[in-house]
Amino acid sequence: MSFVIYFPGRGTVREKAYLEGKLENRASLVLRVLEKRGIPFPEGTRERITSCADLDTLALWFDHSLTAAAAEDLFAEDPEISATVLGGSENRVPG
Predict the structure, then answer these.
(1) pLDDT at residue 92 greater than cutoff 80
(2) What does each C-alpha distance from 12 to 17, 50, 56, 90 come to in angstroms?
(3) 74 with 65: CB under 8 angstroms?
(4) Total of domains in the chain
(5) CA-CA distance, 49 to 27, in Å (whole number)?
(6) Does the pLDDT value for residue 2 go beyond 80?
(7) 30 part of a folded domain
(8) What's the domain range around 18?
């Protein structure tokens, strides 16, 4: 027997509001880290972050914001993921 955990009110306006709140929160955290670190970002970057509707992507961008040297670094691909997609390290371009 398996158990599935559902959000209370799944498929309702309440769930939608909950998820939208989580998205807004994650987006604001990404922007706040950039601001606190003194990394400037153009309005287009702000719009891209605040309009993102994927929690996993926002989490990845948050992780990148902790070490990014520039706002564009948020959107860089994860090298580990790229290596997996390309089939391993033998397909990497020498640095």
Answers:
(1) no
(2) 9, 23, 22, 48
(3) yes
(4) 1
(5) 6
(6) no
(7) yes
(8) 13-91
Q: What is the pLDDT of residues 28-53, one digit of tens each?
A: 999 999 999 999 999 999 999 999 99
Show the CA angle centred on residue 39, arms to residues 37 and 40, nearest 5°. Answer: 145
**Arithmetic mean of pLDDT, 54-71:** 94
Work out the angle at residue 82's Cα, subtended by the Cα atoms of residues 47 and 65, and round it to the nearest 5 degrees.
40
Token reading at 84: 């997996």
Q: Are 58 and 27 within 8 A, CB to CB?
A: yes
Does a structural domain hold residue 5?
Answer: no
What is the C-alpha to C-alpha distance for residues 73 and 37, in angstroms, rounded to an integer?
14
How many residues does the structure list for the chain? 95
Higher pLDDT pick, 78 / 60: 60
